[in-house]
Amino acid sequence: MSKLGKIYGIGVGPGDSDLLTVRAVKILEKVDVVFAASSTKNDYSNSLAIASEYINETCEVVKLGYPMTRDKDILQQAWEDNCHTAVKYISQGKNAAFLTLGDPLIYSTFGYMMQTMNRIHPEVEFEVVPGITSYQAAAAKSKQVLVESGQNLLLTSGVADPEKFSQTLEAVDNAVILKAYRNFPELREIVGGMKKMNVKFYTRLGMDGEAIYLDINEVPEKTHYLSLMLLTAACGD
């Protein structure tokens, strides 16, 4: 039996292909297989589109479909099915890269995949290659200091209960809200009334359709799922 190959979890950054790390590029130039998460609705993969120019010509690209649903049973089955698919390749001794937007360990498809694999195929070896996050890229675009001195920084998701946001945000100096498209009307109302913070809204960073809003009230009611907010202490702007 062939020695098992390794799976590299590679963060491809938020959208601009120039933001892949040197380490990520070197791995993509030598792996045998690339796994790219895609929607079961349209088979498209943002992470693959970003990293495609660095993938070697002999590499096999395998799209792993994930349903856009909140049903935990359906999602769990998808994680397990895709893990079994990945094992079919690495059991042949092939090394593989699993592409994911941003960083592999922050609100990432890869995180679920790795945890599921550790449970059902604990013999599989992983290596994680960090990636630049969307909020780092957003801060750089705006030349906005995210946190300094004795301040704190909250990292959260728009998927969280909107009713808890107001109290939570009042207790922090700065905040990042990823997946800001979720519960956006409620989030806009909450952050719009926070005078102690400056609010910036970003969508599709580094991709076609990129937009940055300095006024939260100008953001369309329905915004893209690749959206985030930066809330920073007013004195730090």
Automatic annotation (TrEMBL):
Pathway: Cofactor biosynthesis; adenosylcobalamin biosynthesis
GO MF term set: precorrin-2 C20-methyltransferase activity
Source organism (scientific name): Maridesulfovibrio hydrothermalis AM13 = DSM 14728
GO BP term, example: methylation
Database matches in InterPro entries: 4pyrrol_Mease, 4pyrrol_Methylase_sf, 4pyrrole_Mease_sub1, 4pyrrole_Mease_sub2, CobI/CbiL, CobI/CbiL/CobIJ_dom
Lineage top rank: taxon: Bacteria
This protein's name: Precorrin-2 C20-methyltransferase
Record family assignment: Belongs to the precorrin methyltransferase family.
Span of domain Tetrapyrrole methylase: 6-213
